[in-house]
Amino acid sequence: MIAPAVRFPAEWEPQSAVLVAWPHAGTDWAARLPAVETAYVELIAAIARFEHALICVADEAVRARAATLLAHTGVPGKHLHFVQADYDDTWLRDSGPISLVGRDQLHLLDFHFTAWGGKYAASRDDRLIEQLCARGVFANARRERIDFALEGGAIETDGDGTLLTTWQCLHARHPDLDRSELSARLAQELHQRRVLWLDHGALQGDDTDAHVDTLARFASPDSIVFQSCDDTDDPHHAPLTAMARELASLHTLDGKPYRLFALPWPRPIVDAGRRLAASYANFLIVNGAVLMPAYDDPADALAATVLAQAFPGRQIVPVRCRALIWQNGSLHCLTMQLPKGLLAS
């Protein structure tokens, strides 16, 4: 088969850096900023053990604060890069670039970011990719603005032309399009051969309308890791069990069932009467490792074991995320990997 001219790489392919945005008093993190900064330090330190971290900062004061906190971790300074940008929030999985790899050039897809269907302000986040390109942080890349609402957390690719997503999220963004129309648009913009849809599965405390990166993730072209729930008294049990059945019915391009890895269910985390979306599926793949959200829960150890089975040869690194899910997302939601060759020297 002739290799496609443009391809959407899988997350486990070689990366040049991971993009994040530092929280500050002008973001929704303000009320619990010290605890959130501690979580960010742990996350960025984990990333910098394996590759570069490109850190967006709102101004010089925020940069100095981030640099000071990170200096105490002992991470290599050469792996930390700061870029000033204006942003509403720090969920760069959804406002950051979706990167495609071409034969001679990288393509940065700049989809319209609506803050999950207009739930929050997003005008600055919607201009983030344009700002970063103007700062010259990307090499050999062309930004492509696309007038179509899509978030990076809503899609998963196996790097070989299969996209996995949820109907609840994409239908919420584009209620006037049916499934065949949405499949065609996603396949066209993301250069995919097919789109697989999940109709079940959603987490309480998730304000993204069921992003797939909290539910089910490719671990290879023939395997999927997914969040399960074995507590029959939990309201998540029925929808996640239905999702597991859906996943078991899917097949690879070769017609074989996917190898499935079920992640354990953590105990409920409730904050001020609100159930938070604690999912082990919100992991981040980096060069040589998988960063796993940890919740100070007995199930953390089993989740690490499952991920080690799904990603043989990669180190599994737990990152404490209880402070992060207060704002409805975990470490994958906060980050966006950048493929090899994209970070300017």
Q: Could you please describe the fold and organization of this structure?
A:
- With 345 residues, this protein is an alpha/beta fold.
- The chain has one domain (6-339): L-arginine/glycine Amidinotransferase, Chain A (5-stranded Propeller).
- The protein has ten helices and 19 strands.
- It has helices at 33-48, 60-71, 92-95, 115-118, 128-134, 167-173, 179-190, 237-249, 299-310, 331-334; strands at 6-7, 15-21, 52-57, 80-84, 98-102, 106-112, 141-149, 155-157, 162-166, 194-198, 216-220, 223-227, 259-263, 270-271, 274-275, 284-286, 289-294, 315-320, 336-339.
- It has a four-stranded mixed sheet, covered by helices on one side. A four-stranded mixed sheet has the order 4-3-2-19. A three-stranded mixed sheet has the order 8-9-10, with helices on both faces.
- The protein is globular, with a radius of gyration of 19 Å.
- The model has no long low-confidence stretch (mean pLDDT 96).
